[in-house]
Specification:
The protein has 14 helices and eight strands. By secondary structure, the protein is of the alpha/beta class. This is Methylenetetrahydrofolate reductase.
Length: 306
């Protein structure tokens, strides 16, 4: 398959959207990655590709996917879901496999979408406390952010525990050499995202934010994932769209939320959101093509800090 000419295909987008999309990352799973014949035909070299570790996925499949994508010239960031890692020995084994077979030196640490822990760990903070990633020389550790809260963590509907965890992660970042960033769940409304991000800085949390965005997909698909993932107030954006028969059959595109965030960033350079992280719920190819058509380019931007 011939590689695409990204310089020719890419065109500037109005309102700073092209600038805002620069350096975007994307998430895949082993089963979705297996459907891609050649990632180089979709993503420019240097793109950070997260590999989601879903409960039940063998570590061998995760590592093989990481090795394949890394060999094609991408920065690989596998998930380490605390609640499916049984013990320290398992954690160290995973780290050694990723390093030995895929030369991985960065990871996304999160609790994981499992109600009951499989073993010793139940939070990303416990994984950080082991010191295993520092000992292995991991240069970058990302953790989860929740602009609209997380019902699995704060069952009372508040954000108390989520906010306490953020302060802990901020303190961990300050006392270690870890390069950290917050990677968020996807959202559909810019207003709560902006309020949350501005609140971080007001609370003294200066971790860079990589905002989660759902790529183009059928509306029914997004609503299903949004409900399953516990997306909060911004779910109403999808529900309102679903009531409009003229829009119901059209694929959703994240133009509106990204445009609003891009304009806020342009007007407020210190805005906490520094990069976009795509969840390609409608497919890796369509998401990459949409980002390219909007003037965005993946890979690490020259002035990136996270």
């Amino acid at each position: 398959m011939a590689l695409l000419d990204f310089r020719r295909k890419t065109s500037p987008a109005a309102g700073g959207l092209d600038t805002f999309l620069k350096g975007y990352s994307i998430e895949v799973m082993p089963r979705t990655a297996a459907k891609i014949e050649d990632f180089r035909a979709l993503l420019p070299a240097g793109t950070r590709v997260y590999i989601a570790h879903i409960e039940g996925t063998p570590i061998e499949e995760m590592v093989a996917t990481a090795a394949r994508i890394a060999a094609d010239g991408y920065e690989v960031m596998p998930h380490f879901p605390a609640r499916i890692i049984r013990d320290a020995a398992t954690l160290n084994d995973w780290i050694a496999r990723y390093q030995g077979e895929a030369d991985v030196d960065q990871a996304l640490l999160l609790a994981g979408g499992v109600k009951h822990p499989h073993g010793a760990f139940h939070s990303s903070m416990q994984l950080l406390e082991t010191g295993a990633f520092d000992k292995a020389g991991f240069r970058r550790l990302h953790v989860a952010g929740h602009p609209e809260g997380n019902r699995d963590i704060d069952t009372d509907g508040t954000m108390r525990q989520v906010e306490a965890a953020l302060r802990w992660k901020q303190d961990f970042s300050a006392r270690t050499d870890a390069r950290m960033a917050l990677v968020t769940q996807f959202a559909f409304d810019a207003r709560p995202v902006i309020a949350w991000a501005e609140g971080l800085r007001a609370a003294g949390i200066d971790l860079p934010v990589h905002i989660g965005i759902a790529g183009p997909a059928k509306l029914q698909t997004l609503i299903k994932f949004a409900i399953a993932c516990g997306v909060g107030p911004s779910l109403k954006v999808l529900q309102k769209r679903a009531l409009d028969v003229t829009k119901l059959l059209l694929p959703y595109e994240p133009t509106e939320i990204l445009q609003a965030l891009a304009e806020h960033k342009a007007a407020n350079p210190g805005f906490a959101i520094e990069q976009v992280h795509f969840f390609p719920l409608g497919g890796i190819g369509p998401t990459a093509a949409w980002a390219r058509d909007k003037g965005g380019a993946s890979g690490r931007p020259a002035a990136a800090t996270a």
